[in-house]
Amino acid sequence: MRDTASGPRVLLKRLRELMQEPLEPQERLDRIVRDIAANMVAEVCSLYVLRADSVLELYATEGLNPNAVHLAQLRLGEGLVGTIAASARPLNLSNAQEHPAFAYLPETGEEIYNSFLGVPVLRAGRTLGVLVVQNKTMRHYRDDEVEALETTAMVIAEMIATGDLARLTRPGLELDLRRPVSFTGLSFNEGVGLGHVVLHEPRIVVTNLFNEDSDEEIKRLDASLGSLRLSIDDMLERREVAFEGEHRQVLEAYRMFANDSGWVRRLEEAIRNGLTAEAAVEKVQSDMRARMLHMTDPYLRERMSDFDDLANRLLRQLMGRGPDDVAASLPKDAIIVARSMGAAELLDYPRDKLRGLVLEDGAATSHVVIVARAMGIPVAGQMRGAVSMAENGDAIIVDGEEGAIHLRPQPDLEAAYAEKVRFRARRQEVYRELRKKPSVTKDGVQVDLLMNAGLAVDLPQLAEAGAAGIGLFRTELQFMVASTFPRAEAQERLYRDVLDAARGKPVTFRTIDIGGDKVLPYFKDTIQEENPALGWRAIRLTLDRPGLLRTQIRALLKACGGRELKLMLPMVTELGEIAQAREIIDREVRHLSRFAHHLPTSLKLGAMLEVPSLLFQLDELMKAVDFVSVGSNDLFQFVMAVDRGNTQLSDRFDALSTPFLRVLKQIADAGVRNQTPVTLCGELAGKPISAMALIGLGYRSISMSPASIGPVKAMLTELPLAELETFFDDNLMAPVQGLPMRALLQAFADDRSIPL
């Protein structure tokens, strides 16, 4: 009985020898196709490489007319070769000329050949070319021959990826791997970043492709698979990453793939055909990705990213790679490209090297975006396909203003964006000059521009941005980036550092706001909820788990000794919650007094207005607290019934719509009526046009990301407030018709040359 694996093993051994010889690229390709033809007893072996103009060019052939090399070409989708490239699927035909896609190229002389086997040259599921063998006799190629050709194609893919074939490309043409690509999605944070790609889950480059001992490689694979399965089981049992819902489903998908016998069998077959364990993982991963990309079932296509992540984990296990290796080799102008990531993962990267962030998923209000905004880096999201098209080190431009990215940009586009960056730098100089100027409207009305913060990394920006104080300090971020609950001493130290950095400027601390989409990996009490945004979160959770709140209150009281403490409760729904929180605070004050601790000079308690039920008890609310802060992100979500994390709705409803502005006006009026200070903190405060609307509605204190203060202040100093108030008197309560409110506000600003 013939050993069907011996042919591929002999071929791969020969290819390994060829790759080590000091040959010119064309000679190496010519030798490769010659050896493939000899090994597979084929009369023809040809390699077509995909160019950036979507044309497949013949790069090497054994058996066809050698003069056709670099001249014969097919468009993507044209002929059998073009069909393979477009579908990323092999074709195995006993009579090629009967196939409806067959296209005759007279310069090649291939009309006398009947049987045809073609496989795509794939890298990370992306087609880089097509490898073909042909025979005169009508025959169907065996499965082991298909496998051998696919394995050989993977070796050629690495040659293309390393740039070996670039020297063979004719002037004015480029290979598809280097093709400039642009993506349009959503802007999650303004700014422009020019730099080089750093894949958040870096694609491992396998350099050791051919094995010396198949049995030893299978042992290595088994050991790494065992470690991988144990780590996934451990995460699920300890619920270490994310407890329920979507996060748990991802881990369950990982476990399903890790234990899939078909996947393991394909890996072992690739090893027995001569590949190392890591090369086998890369080959099977690429084949699987190409197949799943062309499936129409959206669920199966979504699972593709789960499979990719799992395969990358296995590769790192096999190659002994860790996340520290990436940070060590980070370029000075890194732009992180990720499918999705957590806030803590972004903070693992050194801030001084980050120039931007690209996300395939996510939303403007997701926590990684909030952290990126605090760090002042541009963010573009909903960039589907960016990860598979990008390679580590690729030049990239992130346009956070237009919500676009440009991979491997043309020189003229890069020059245009470089000028845009210089223009923004000049504009930032203007904003810096505004720092020391009073924050007043054109007609002399004071408006406090505060900043949002949540981590020590934010604190230097208080002075740099010229903020009047910190209007929202998100204490939960300290909990989100930690691996265990921060001890009381650590909390106290952070809160004291914040107050020291503020240098007497007011700071409003929000009590821990977890639950919903803000998950703590180590919090064991999290439950699965149908609607987490409406569920057990924020003040509801901390009143049910008062130990959490007591520890935090005690740390805040001690940190604020001798200074004012402004404390804000998140997601208050009814006034009874404020009363319960006051009891906990008073108990902690009495406890510290008993032990003669240095207490705050004053304690002001406020509530966040995010839940619509408070709109029907505004006067009672204003009397029950010392101040109110409007959380515009959640309030808009609840008033308009819009899931702020749902990308299908992200641009469908406008926060500057007349109904929502009427709600905001009611709140501002209630604050004036009851002499209770009202601040608005949320994304609405950070855009000049929406900040202008808030000021016109009566808000005299707004809090935003540090990067937004300059543009908002530039608008504020040119704003004739009395005219804007008259504008709202005429338009806010009038019947909703004609132009939307955003367009009317834009026209108001344009007529008065107010910079937005």
Automatic annotation (TrEMBL):
SUPFAM superfamilies, A to Z: Enzyme I of the PEP:sugar phosphotransferase system HPr-binding (sub)domain, GAF domain-like, Phosphoenolpyruvate/pyruvate domain, Phosphohistidine domain
Keywords tagged on the record: Cytoplasm, Kinase, Magnesium, Metal-binding, Phosphotransferase system, Sugar transport, Transferase, Transport
Xref: PROSITE patterns: PEP_ENZYMES_2
Cofactor (UniProt): Mg(2+)
Documented EC number(s): 2.7.3.9
Keyword Coiled coil: no
InterPro entries from the UniProt entry: GAF (IPR003018), GAF-like_dom_sf (IPR029016), PEP-util_enz_mobile_dom (IPR008279), PEP-utilizing_PTS_enzyme (IPR050499), PEP_util_C (IPR000121), PEP_util_CS (IPR023151), Phosphohistidine_dom_sf (IPR036637), PTS_EI-like (IPR006318)
Annotated compartments: Cytoplasm
Residue span, GAF domain: 24-170
Gene Ontology MF annotations: phosphoenolpyruvate-protein phosphotransferase activity
Nucleotide-binding as UniProt keyword: no
Major location (coarse): cytoplasm
Protein family according to the UniProt entry: Belongs to the PEP-utilizing enzyme family.
NCBIfam families, per the entry: PTS_I_fam (TIGR01417)
Protein name: phosphoenolpyruvate--protein phosphotransferase
Organism: Mesorhizobium onobrychidis
